[in-house]
Design a protein that fits this description.
There is one protein chain. The protein is of the alpha/beta class. The chain has one domain: Response regulator (Rossmann fold, 3-Layer(aba) Sandwich). Helix content is 38%, strand content 27%. Strand 2 and strand 3 form a beta hairpin. The two termini are 15 Å apart. The relative contact order is 0.24. This is protein-N(pi)-phosphohistidine--D-fructose phosphotransferase. It is an enzyme of class 2 (transferase). Its EC number is 2.7.1.202. InterPro entries: Bacterial_PTS_Sugar_Transport (IPR050864), PTS_EIIB-like_sf (IPR036095), PTS_EIIB_2 (IPR013011), PTS_EIIB_2/3 (IPR003501), PTS_IIB_fruc (IPR003353).
């Protein structure tokens, strides 16, 4: 399974990168291929491409702000959550994403 993710918080520093790391760990734990884009004070890093979106099974948007390029995910099954959720509740994020993809 391939999941694209975006992590973004208002300042785009600590929580953005903590969430990105948590999403990568979540992917490894469940044998998902994961690509995590971060949006923050330094701009966009590891940008998700159109090719990434086309082959993705779903998207996780862990953000406290409106993200740039949200329209890229309009045809994907998408979980929108708090930037803290992957950090503090990774099991719930996993279970919810599986439920969304399978329904």
């Amino acid at each position: 399974m391939f999941i694209v993710c975006v992590a973004a918080c208002p300042t785009g520093i600590a929580h953005t990168y903590m969430a990105a790391e948590a999403l990568e760990v979540l992917g490894k734990e469940h044998n998902w291929e994961v690509k995590v884009e971060t949006q923050g004070s330094t701009g966009i890093d590891n940008e998700i491409t159109l090719e990434d979106v086309e082959r993705a099974d779903g998207a996780i948007i862990a953000a406290e702000i409106a993200i740039d390029g949200m329209e890229r995910f309009e045809n994907l099954k998408t979980l929108e959550c708090s930037v803290a959720d992957p950090i503090k509740q990774s099991a719930a994020v996993y279970e919810t994403m599986i439920h969304i993809i399978n329904n």
